[in-house]
Amino acid sequence: MLAFLLKMAFKNALRHRLRAILTLAGLTVAILAYGLLSTFVSAWYAGADAASDKRLVTRSAISLVFALPISYRDRIRAVDGVTSVSWSNWFGGVYIDERNFFPQFAVDMPTYLPLYSEFVITPEERAALLHDRRGCVVGAKLAARFGWKLGDTIPMKGTIYPGTWPLTIRAIYHGRDERTNEDQMLFHWDYLNERIKQIYPKRGDSAGVFVVGLKDASEAALVSERIDSQFRNSLAETLTETEKAFQLSFVAMTDTIILAIKVVSYVVILIIMAVMANTMAMAARERTAEYATLKALGFGPPIVGWLILFESILVCLIGGGFGILLTFPLVRVIGHALSSVLPTFNMGEHTSLEQAIASVLVALVAAAIPAWRSMQVRIVEGLRAVA
Amino acid sequence: MTTGTDAREATALAAQPAAVALRHVSKHYVRGGQEVPVLTDIDFDIAQGDFLAMMGPSGSGKSTLLNLIAGIDKPSSGQIIVDGIDIALLTEGDLADWRAQHVGFIFQFYNLMPVLTAYENVELPLMLTSLGKRERREHAEMALGMVGLQDRMTHYPNELSGGQQQRVAIARALVTDPTLIVADEPTGDLDRKSAGEVLDLLDRLNGDLGKTIVMVTHDARAADRAHAIRHLEKGELSALETKP
User: Fold this and answer.
1) Could you tell me the residue ranges of all domains in chain A?
2) Integer Rg of chain B from CA
3) Do A380 and B125 touch (CB under 8 A)?
4) A-B contacts (CB, under 8 Å)
5) pLDDT tens per residue, range B43-73
C-alpha cells in the first residue's frame, strides 16, 4: 500500500508539468534564500562563535578607542587564575586602495601566537616570523586573495599610525577549522611601538586590548572581576569580558539589521508555505471526484489524507533538496565575493538541517487543510464534482 | 413486458433469494433549515442475479437510491440489507471495507484515475485485498481480457476512447468479484455503438457470471437490457415492470 501511495503521489505531483515546475522553482528559491540568509547571520556571529572560552579581553572601560598602558601587562599577569597575557593594537592600514580592506593587528607575537592555537603555522615559518621584527603573518585566504607568498613585502599605508609600513610575509597561517578567520594580518607590536615612540612619544607603550589566557574557563567572571578591580579608580579603568562577549559587543551594534535579516528569512518560508498551501488546495479541489472514487472503491479517508500529504512532502523534498544542493556552491561564490567583509561565510553546521526541516514543515502545513478537507468530503458530494 | 404489483412479489416470482432488501427506507436533506424529502418509505427487494434498471426524471431520487444500495450514502431511516447485513448500521470504516468486498462501481464519467494506466486502474481495488502482486496481475489481466482490452493495459485513460474507458471501469468493477454491481448512467456519456458494447458487457456479467446489477439510466434502450425496471417519481417507487 505504501508503494502504491508513493507512486500515486509522485504521479499526481508531476501531473501538471508547468505548475509542478513553477512550484518546485519557488520552493528551491525559497529554501536557497533561507539557507543564504541563515549563512549570512551565522557568518556575522562567526567571530563570537569561534571565540575561545579560555580567553578574556581587557580593554579601556571608557571605550575601545582609548588604549591602555602597557604596564598593565604585569599586573594582569599577577592576577590569580591568569596563565598568560598578550596584547594587540588595531592598525587600520590600507593596502594600495581602501577597497582592499582586511583587518591588521600589531600583536606581541611571542605571547600572542601561543594563545591562538587555532592559527596553525609550521615551526619553520613561526621561527622566521619571530626572528624578523618587520615580519608578519597572514591568513591563507588573505594570501590567496592578493596572490601573496612567503618573502613578499607588503607596503601598508598607516591611517591611525601615519607613514608607510613595509611588512615582510614570514608565515601564512591556516585555520584549525573553517570557523577560524583566515583573512587577517598580524605583525610585531614592537615594530609599531618603536616607530610610534619616535614620531609620537605619547602614543607609545600602549595596548589597544590585552588578551588574557585563563587557567579555568569556568572562572571567567571571577578573574574578570579580579582584573578590573586592580585598575578601579585609576586613570585608565578596565573592562574585562570573555572573548565571546567582546566579539558580541561588535555584533550588537548591528543587532537590528541581523534581526531584520532573520525575520526576512522566516517570511520567505511563510510566503512559500502560503504558495504551496494554495497549490495543494487547488490540486486537492481538482481531484475531489478522484478522491471520492477512491473512497467509493473502499479506500478509507486516511488513505486520501496520506495521498495528499505524501504528494506535498515529495514536492517539498524535491524543491527543498535542490535548494539545499544549490546553497553549497552559492555560499562559496558569495563567500569569495564577501571575503573582506565576512571572512568566514561558510555553511553553518545546522543550515542544511534547518533547510530540510523548513521544507518538511512547509509540506506538512501546506497539506494539512487540503488533506483534512478531502478526508471530510462525503463520497456522494465528491462524485458530483465530476458532473 | 408485464407489470407486477410490488417488489417482494416480483422477487418471489423470480424464486431467488434477495441480494438486496430495502425496508421503509427514507432519505431527506436539510437545506436552509428545512427538510427536503428525496426518498419516501422505499420498500423492495432485488433478487440474487437480477438485473434491475431504475428510471425516472431528474431529481426523482434514483441516484440517491443507488448510492444507498451501494453503501456510499446512508438513509435517514429504514434498513438496507445486503447479503444479510444491514449496511445502514455499519460505521464509515466498516462500510468502506464492505464496499471493497461486495460492490463494483460503474460511473457515468468512468471515474478512472488519470495518472494510472488501464492496468493500474483495474488493479486499484485489489490493493485493498491480501492478494500478492502476481495474483493481482493475474486478476487484473483477466478482467481486462473479459472486456477485450488486454492490448490496452499500458494506456492511460486519456489515450482511450469513452467506450474503452467505460470498459476499463467495468473491468475495475468486476475484478474483485463483487456480489453487487451498481451502474450510474453507464451509457450516459457514450455514443450508440459504444453504449451497445457496454450494455453487452453488462449482459454478460449478469448472464454468464450471475452478477446482481442495479443500473440507473435515462436511456430506454439501456433499460431494455434489464430484467426488470423500477420507476421513481418524486422519491416514490412505482410498480415493478418485469420482462418475460
Assistant:
1) 2-46+254-384, 62-236
2) 18
3) no
4) 66
5) 988 989 999 999 988 888 889 999 999 999 9
Grid cell digits, residue B32:
436552509
Specify the number of domains making up chain B: 1
Residues of chain B in contact with residue A387, where contact means CB-CB under 8 angstroms, are 108-109
Q: What is the pLDDT of residues A111-163, one digit of tens each?
A: 999 999 999 999 999 999 999 999 999 999 999 999 999 999 999 998 888 88
**H-type helices in chain A, by residue range?**
2-13, 17-44, 46-50, 72-77, 109-115, 123-131, 140-146, 189-199, 220-230, 243-251, 255-286, 288-297, 301-337, 351-376, 379-384
Interface contact flag, B114 A297, Cβ < 8 Å: no
What 3-state DSSP class applies to A214? strand
ipTM of model: 0.88
Question: What's phi and psi for A229, nearest 5 deg?
Answer: -70, -25
Residues making up chain B, counted from first to last: 244
Instruction: State the CATH number of the domain containing residue B106.
Output: 3.40.50.300
- Smallest CA–CA distance, residue A294 to chain B, in Å, is 9
Domain hosting residue B140, numbered range: 2-242
